[in-house]
Amino acid sequence: MKRLSLPAAALFACAFALAVAGCSMMPGGDSGWTTLIDGTAKSLENFNRIGDANWRVEDGAVVADRGKGGYLVSKNSYKDFQIRAEFWADHTTNSGIFLRAADPNKIGAVSAYEVNIYDQRPEPAYGTGAIVDVAKVAPMPKAGGKWNTYEITARGSQLTVVLNGQQTVNVSDSKHAQGPFALQFGNGAKDAPGGAIKFRKVEIKPL
Question: How far apart are CA 67 and CA 24, in angstroms?
Fold first, then answer.
């Protein structure tokens, strides 16, 4: 009988295990993930509202499109983690995901890492796909008018951002070590009304 090579044997073993109980080596497992936004009314119960924004659940997503600017701030604090977020942004949207906020009542790019969603930012190097004042993007990807996926990892001082499958940030920075994360609705340049932001699904996994 011909012996299987090591890679072939491993694949055979995995296929057999998958047929019985699932193979842990296969991608796509959701072990350890907590869903904070799933498009239902209960999604808003996982966050505190800060500022002036009309957050609501509409058509299977958490939406904001009016107000002077506001945030949904996670009730829990996180140190090392991964976030997966599905979002829809208008072309004029000023939004973002803020990580490790030092003060949950005062969110900003100075006191947290801001993973930006802002196609029309006056300084595009820190627009969509960037971490404001920490890691630039060039050229800046565009998120307006479509559904997008952010995959964000914070492990110690190492921060990575992947937008729609393309890595936009891989940087080391140690300014902020721990804190809640926040989802933003903001106005545009010179306080122009901001476009809509929608979050269809947001999950987090402590590392």
Answer: 45
